[in-house]
């Protein structure tokens, strides 16, 4: 992404801040996975959106006074011994080039508390008296969830009880929800890689291998194609496992006659793809599998046609539910509408972007530049059939574009591709 993108994002956020306020956004920290190893670092996506910097323990501070916004960035100073063992972190000049910061406004982390105190000290005349601190206080369902920001908030309240703390999370989310053309291009790259990765799966899947073995064909391709990380842990679910929405074990033997559901994706510069496809292990759908699959596919295609600016999330979800209810009655699964939740228990989609489930404001209508998944499903545990078909869709001025339209999903196309290209089924 061009540094102008991050400059513009910070400008847009600055306009949303009230005068005489500070915003502090933190990149995140490393977490230990064992005595001598850390989990892979995952940057706070709101921080990344504003800076372009993907590094732990970096602080962005925006100070607004007299309708003017000052920017400060705080980086860890490179220690000579640390560099020899682990390699260098970003130097100020590198951070400046990435995020478009003035080098004079980049400090080392150890200077953060001192500069913050200087700005908040009412005896100083360099700034108007600050009365509001904005923090990125993302709430999670885990009531015990803690991170750097929540710990900082507790300390700050003790030191500066007179200053109001406000949550800036929803303001950043509202900006992130509408994507620029550059952001869409990054997502397209992820979708393209995912397309070929799924083709590798179709070319190699067969009865008699384990789910984790089938998964490796996707894993190896996304690594080969630019070392792209997974968007999330891949779901490879065969037979009845596909009726578990977030199946993660991926350790069952794939049997002849199984359908295998793949829910997967990768990310390019943290912009993700999220695709679901279902393939017959032996290359052919049986009559019942084909019947169920085509009902889900019909819902998928009609929901894509339904999407356009002005549609609400509720209208979108209700439309999908009505289609799936009709399908389940046609398939002989239910008689009463209310029983459809026995075979479908999630919503039709979610926002996508820097996160797989990109945060969004759900009472906001779809607008040009928003992206959503379209992922209807029918899960029949008693028949060992689970089908979900998911695409990534961009809302346009007059309708929408399916960014993953080139990832085949028609029954006849899947069977023809596997017949022609699967190295085991051709024998």
What is shown here, in short?
With 427 residues, the chain is α+β, with helices and mostly antiparallel strands. The chain is built from twelve helices and 16 strands. Helix 8 crosses helix 9 and helix 10 packs antiparallel against helix 11.
What does the model show?
With 427 residues, the chain is α+β, with helices and mostly antiparallel strands. It folds into two domains: 3-176, Creatinase/prolidase N-terminal domain (Creatine Amidinohydrolase, Chain A, domain 1), CATH 3.40.350; 181-421, Creatine Amidinohydrolase. The chain contains twelve helices and 16 strands. Strands 4-3-2-1-5-6 form a six-stranded mixed beta sheet, sandwiched between helices. Helix 8 packs across helix 9 (211-224) and helix 10 (287-306) packs antiparallel against helix 11 (313-330). It is elongated, with a radius of gyration of 25 Å.
């Amino acid at each position: 992404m061009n540094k102008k993108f991050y400059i513009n994002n910070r400008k847009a956020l600055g306009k949303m801040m009230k005068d005489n306020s500070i915003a502090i956004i933190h990149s995140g920290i490393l977490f230990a996975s064992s005595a001598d190893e850390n989990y892979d670092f995952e940057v706070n996506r709101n921080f990344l959106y504003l800076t372009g910097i993907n590094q732990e323990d970096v602080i962005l501070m925006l100070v607004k006074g007299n309708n003017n916004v000052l920017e400060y960035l705080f980086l860890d100073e490179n220690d000579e011994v640390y560099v020899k063992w682990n390699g260098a972190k970003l130097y100020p000049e590198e951070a400046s080039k990435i995020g478009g910061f003035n080098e004079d406004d980049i400090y080392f982390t150890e200077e953060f508390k001192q500069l913050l105190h200087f700005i908040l000290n009412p005896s100083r005349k360099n700034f108007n008296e600050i009365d509001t601190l904005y923090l990125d206080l993302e709430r999670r369902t885990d009531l015990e969830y803690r991170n750097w920001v929540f710990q900082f908030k507790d300390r700050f309240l003790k030191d500066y009880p007179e200053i109001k703390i406000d949550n800036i999370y929803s303001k950043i989310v509202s900006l992130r929800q509408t994507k620029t053309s550059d952001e869409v291009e990054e997502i397209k790259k992820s979708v393209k890689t995912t397309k070929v990765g799924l083709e590798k799966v179709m070319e190699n899947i067969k009865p008699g291998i384990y789910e984790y073995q089938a998964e490796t064909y996707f894993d190896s391709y996304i690594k080969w194609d630019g070392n792209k990380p997974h968007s999330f842990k891949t779901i490879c679910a065969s037979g009845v496992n596909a009726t578990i929405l977030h199946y993660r074990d991926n350790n069952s033997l794939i049997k002849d006659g199984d359908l295998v559901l793949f829910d997967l994706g990768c990310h390019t510069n943290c912009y993700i793809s999220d695709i679901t496809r279902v393939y017959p292990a032996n290359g052919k759908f049986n009559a019942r599998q084909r019947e169920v699959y085509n009902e889900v596919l019909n819902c998928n295609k009609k929901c894509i046609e339904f999407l356009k600016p002005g549609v609400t999330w509720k209208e979108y979800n209700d439309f999908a539910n009505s289609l799936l209810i009709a399908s389940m009655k046609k398939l002989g699964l239910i008689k009463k509408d209310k029983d459809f939740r026995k075979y479908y228990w999630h919503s039709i989609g979610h926002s996508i972007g820097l996160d797989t489930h990109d945060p969004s404001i759900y009472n906001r209508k779809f607008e040009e530049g928003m992206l959503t998944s379209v992922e209807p499903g029918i899960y029949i545990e008693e028949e060992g059939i689970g089908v979900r078909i998911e695409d990534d869709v961009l809302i346009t001025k007059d309708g929408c574009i399916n960014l993953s339209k080139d990832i085949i999903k028609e029954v006849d196309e899947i069977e023809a591709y596997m017949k022609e290209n699967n190295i085991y089924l051709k024998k």
